[in-house]
Design a protein that fits this description.
This protein is an alpha+beta fold and 123 residues long. It has one domain: Ribosomal Protein S5, domain 2 (2-Layer Sandwich). The chain is built from 3 helices and 4 strands; from the N terminus they run H-E-E-E-H-E-H. It has a 4-stranded mixed beta sheet. Belongs to the RnpA family. One of its GO terms (molecular function) is ribonuclease P activity.
């Protein structure tokens, strides 16, 4: 499996994002949260992933962008946990929800725990 986060994997559809916020379920592992919904669109991709960091907690764009880069990297390296466990296409939104400034290693550990928690909930 390739450790990539290609353009086709990125969540960009406004209608899918609206569906995530209206009908999506979520799992959390502080300070991360994963909102997911089965993706009804007819696309080939098994996973569509978006990342978000709250402006409420990080006022400066440079800080938000740093954490978004870290979240994307953690997803890229650990997406095999998700891909191996799902058969249907899903859309995900990955949030960082804290004022705490965790290190990359801590965020990576929490990401692995969060993805495993998702796998348990789906089965």
């Amino acid at each position: 499996m390739a450790f990539t986060y290609s353009k086709t994997e990125k969540l960009k559809s406004k209608s899918t994002i609206d569906l995530l916020f209206s009908e999506g379920k979520s799992v959390s592992k502080y300070p991360l949260r994963l909102v997911f919904v089965e993706n009804p669109s007819e696309e080939k991709e098994l996973i569509k992933m978006g990342v978000s960091v709250s402006k409420k907690y990080f006022k400066h764009a440079v800080d938000r962008n740093y954490f978004k880069r870290v979240l994307r990297e953690c997803y890229r390296l650990n997406k095999h946990i998700l891909v191996d466990s799902i058969e249907k296409p899903y859309a995900f939104m990955f949030f960082y929800q804290s004022k705490e400034r965790l290190t990359y290693q801590e965020i990576n550990e929490k990401t692995i725990q969060l993805f495993q928690k998702f796998v348990e909930n789906v089965k």
